[in-house]
Write a structure and sequence with these properties.
Elements (H helix, E strand, L loop, with lengths): L5 H6 L31 E3 L4 E3 L3 H5 L4 H8 L4 E4 L4 E4 L2 E2 L1 E4 L2 E2 L2 H5 L6 E7 L12 E6 L5 E10 L4 E13 L2 E13 L1 E12 L5 E28 L3 E25 L6 E24 L3 E23 L6 E25 L3 E18 L5 E20 L2 E16 L4 E19 L2 E12 L3 H4 L4 E2 L4 E3 L8 E14 L2 E12 L3 E8 L2 E8 L2 E16 L3 E16 L2 E18 L2 E9 L2 E4 L2 E17 L2 E8 L6 E7 L3 E9 L3 E13 L24
Length: 693
């Protein structure tokens, strides 16, 4: 797209008047601009975000919000529509729709024609609750009164696929929505490469190597949702949402043959673990505008979890019925979470004040069926306050704020617990040389509270040697990050380059030690993790509007210290994508190398993947075909560095899966705009984790 001249931006009024458009609505109407056609830059560098405007071809070749996001090819993002994931630099991305915290399913349900722009924030403010990255979809008023979206994507060689349907209906100022999806993974073949060496406290050692005898993975889950929204423009927004997610079967089953270096007989191994359950939830939202550019936002959400996690670990001598190790763990959870948040926003010509608070309560009840029905209760409460001020000084902008988090948790059966106050300062300074070049220095901090699995003191046996037990003396961990970033727009090339420094001086990490001939995994507030990253994220228009390439590459150096250890790790990670789009066809290829993370005494990595996809758009239909992992081997694994247990594991799934996809979008009538939330609170019920090796 051509660069917008400043005179037209002046005519367009408040298109770029707010540095954070989630705090304001689009005030440019078709009537104001009926004789002017503005072609916005593909990316606009703002003080606190990058704004991407979808091109006409990107919209026409998309049938839902995820496909449009993929077609935007934002360099820092790894978008996988087939697997339903969005990541940045190997970390999670908080997705929002008009400022409302949302899910990948809700992004998928967006009509591409309604998405006016996508805001990418790699330094989100305090009101985003410590998110690493935020992706905000700004959705405008559709021109139809209802819509039906359907997607089917089955694999051709295994029981794997994704299916979705979503419908929206409008009457006056009200909108109703109902939808659901199903993610199917049934008996996907797998094996693992694994070897381990145990070093006892007296110096003796034992090495065990596995020969895979195969296994399968099941991961089938579904979601259903319904919502109602009432919108009185520029005055009131009210929303109520109901949702239900259900894991039909999330199970990993592996079989192997263990060979020991001490001359003992080989051992047959069965390792089975997983969980299943349901999570219903509800949320309420109210936004009220007042005079003098003031706004009050109230939000409530709640979720419940009813489910079971299980683990079976068996070792026996071949051709015998004698079990050397026979471990069965079953935990039944009935957990609940509640969250309430309130935010006040006040805008001036060159400034903005945002202040708010939130309260999150978790109540967890775990029944250990494998321990004779032992019952345990955990209570956790978090209160968060913050205030943040943004101001513009010509080409300079500055944001400064302070948050404070109070965390309290208690175990009823032992009457043990802990409580902490943690400050959360944050500041950003940005210098915009012009619309195509800016420099940003950002400092941010956040806290991580101990999870249910990390604090539960019930001993769980993992295998013939290893046990796991939580630590109820854990304290909330603090993290700090300083990032310098340069964003640039050049002819046919745009992107960013930066340096990031991170430290978590009291990170909560696993700790291994021998106790009574048992290798025990517990948890501690470590001596800290520090890392330094260099990253480059370019996008190149090889042939404008036809052929585009984008990517992200990161090199990270890190150090981890804990009780009795100090480790270093250097690694690179990233993703690359190339896309050819013309005459309704979209051909894309993607490669992803997962980040290698040092945490505690272990280096772990996610999925290394590559995908090829071809789609064709015809009227309301989209037909596609692709293949996951056409090249190389699927790899997900870890490497233990502990002096007591050195091991390396590579999980290999049969992910070379060709698939086909069919999408259909039907629109009719005059549709109401989706409600715009400017803030959200999240109530996720915690859950137990059964021990597994």
């Amino acid at each position: 797209m051509k660069t917008t001249v400043s005179i037209l931006l002046t005519i367009s009024g408040t298109v770029c008047a707010s540095a954070q458009s989630a705090d304001s609505t689009d005030s440019v109407s078709a009537k104001e601009l009926k004789e002017i056609v503005i072609e916005a830059p593909k990316v606009i560098r703002k003080a606190d975000m990058d704004v991407y405007h979808p091109s006409k071809s990107a919209i026409e070749n998309s049938k839902n919000g995820m496909q449009l996001l993929n077609n935007l090819m934002i360099p820092s993002l790894t978008v996988n529509d087939a697997l339903g994931s969005v990541q940045a630099a190997g970390q999670s991305v908080q997705v929002r729709i008009n400022g409302r915290e949302s899910t990948i399913d809700q992004v998928r349900a967006l009509l591409p024609e309604t998405i006016r722009r996508v805001e990418w924030m790699d330094n989100p403010g305090l009101r985003y609750g410590g998110a690493n990255y935020v992706l905000n979809f700004i959705v405008a008023n559709p021109t139809v009164g209802g819509s039906l979206q359907t997607v089917a994507r089955p694999a051709l060689n295994t029981a794997w696929g994704f299916y979705m349907a979503d419908a929206k209906f409008n009457v006056g100022r009200s909108q109703w929505e109902i939808g659901g999806n199903l993610k199917l993974t049934n008996k996907l073949k797998n094996h693992r490469d694994y070897s381990e060496t145990f070093i006892y406290s007296d110096g003796a050692s034992l090495t065990r190597k596995e020969t895979s005898r195969g296994g399968v993975m099941d991961n089938t889950f579904g979601n259903a949702w319904a919502s109602y929204s009432y919108i009185k423009p520029d005055t009131t927004v009210f929303m109520v949402e109901f949702g239900m997610s259900h894991k039909f079967n999330d199970k990993f089953s592996y079989h192997g043959l263990l060979t020991l270096d001490d001359g003992s007989d080989d051992i047959l191994l069965d390792d089975i673990h997983g969980d299943k359950g349901s999570t219903p939830g509800v949320s309420l939202y109210l936004q009220q505008n007042f005079r003098n550019r003031q706004m009050l936002v109230l939000n409530f959400s709640s979720s419940f979890y009813f489910g079971r996690s299980f683990s079976d670990y068996l070792e026996r001598v071949p051709e015998t019925d004698s079990y050397l190790t026979d471990i069965h763990t079953s935990i039944k959870d009935k957990n609940q979470a509640y969250a309430f948040g309130a935010d006040y926003i006040k805008n001036w010509k060159n400034g903005r004040l945002t202040a708010g608070m939130s309260y999150i309560a978790n109540r967890n009840r775990s029944l250990y069926e494998s321990l004779g029905g032992a019952l345990f209760h955990q209570r956790q409460d978090k209160v968060y306050f913050y205030a943040e001020y943004f101001h513009r000084f010509g080409k300079w902008t500055a944001t400064a704020g302070m948050g404070a988090q109070y965390t309290d948790f208690l175990f009823r059966e032992t009457d043990q617990g802990n409580h902490t106050w943690s400050p959360r300062p944050q500041a950003t300074v940005t210098y915009s040389l012009n619309q195509n070049h800016n420099f940003r220095l950002n400092f941010t901090s956040w806290q991580s509270t101990p999870t249910l699995a990390e604090t539960n003191i019930v001993p769980q046996q993992l295998d013939g040697f290893q046990w796991r037990v939580g630590n109820q003396s854990l304290k909330t961990a603090n993290s700090y990050m300083l990032t310098f970033r340069y964003g640039f727009n050049l002819p046919r090339v745009s992107g960013s380059f930066g340096i990031r420094a991170f430290t978590s001086p009291n990170a909560i990490t696993p700790l291994l030690k021998w106790e009574d001939e048992k290798l025990l995994t517990t948890y501690e507030n470590s001596r800290g993790l520090q890392n330094l990253s260099f990253f480059l994220a370019p996008q190149v228009e090889i042939i404008p509007n036809w052929l585009t390439a984008s990517g992200y590459i990161q090199y990270r150096m890190e150090r981890m210290r804990g009780t009795g250890y100090s480790y270093h790790n250097n690694a690179w990670s990233g993703n690359a994508q190339i896309q050819l789009m013309h005459y309704g066809f979209v051909l894309s290829g993607q490669y992803m190398r997962a980040q290698r993370d040092l945490w505690g005494e272990k280096i772990s990595w996610g999925e290394d993947l590559n995908i090829i996809d071809l789609s064709y758009n015809w009227k309301s239909w989209q037909f596609g075909a692709g293949i996951i992992m056409p090249f190389g081997k699927y790899d997900q694994g870890s490497k233990s560095l502990s002096k007591w247990n050195r091991n390396e594991q590579h999980m290999r799934l049969n992910m070379r899966m060709p698939y086909v996809s069919i999408s259909y979008n039907l629109q009719w009538g005059r549709q109401k705009q989706g409600a715009r939330k400017l803030t959200d609170v999240n109530a996720d019920a915690d859950r137990s984790t059964a021990g597994g090796r």
